[in-house]
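Subject: for your reference before the review

Hello V.,

The reviewers asked for a structural picture of the protein, and I figured it would be easier to keep everything in one thread rather than splitting it across files. Below is the amino acid sequence we used in the manuscript, unchanged from the supplementary table.
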Amino acid sequence: MSVVKGIEALKKALEFEESGADYYAMAKEKTRQPQARSIFVLLEEEEKAHIEFLQKMYNKLSAADKWPSQITIDIEKDFKMIFDEAAKNIDSDVKVATDEVEVLSKAIDIERRGRAMYYDLSEKAEDENEKRLYTTLAKWEEGHVALLEDFYNFFSDHGMFTGE
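And here is what came back from the structure prediction:
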């Protein structure tokens, strides 16, 4: 992918991450369940970190007209541990409203689309640094998918739906 196409791809990635941050901000305000809210707060923060990183990458690429040789992203967050900790604190009497479950389902879809987008960009990348960037971002999104799926499945497995 040329630098011009790379810049366009980064713009689209920024738009995607911004819409994700907006979605999680809305979701955290809408949910009444504390553990679901904490997940949406975490994911909003993650999306903001993605935006900040992508904006810096966009600025570097625009200024240098080539991909930086050093691209580092910290994806060390242990999403499994986060799920386990939050699930441990869920009281058996907690009920998750249908709209909260729908928000989780939509969030899973959003993150899956992001993962697919980044893997696609990685496959199209000609520069190895660019390829590594998009592969790493895809893995970041995979962590979000896994976290959201864990919560969705936990709520489903424990019969924690209301209004059904």
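For the response letter, the relevant points are probably these. The longest helix spans residues 34-64. Residues 3-64+76-157 form a domain with the Ferritin fold (CATH 1.20.1260.10).

Happy to draft the paragraph if you're swamped.

O.
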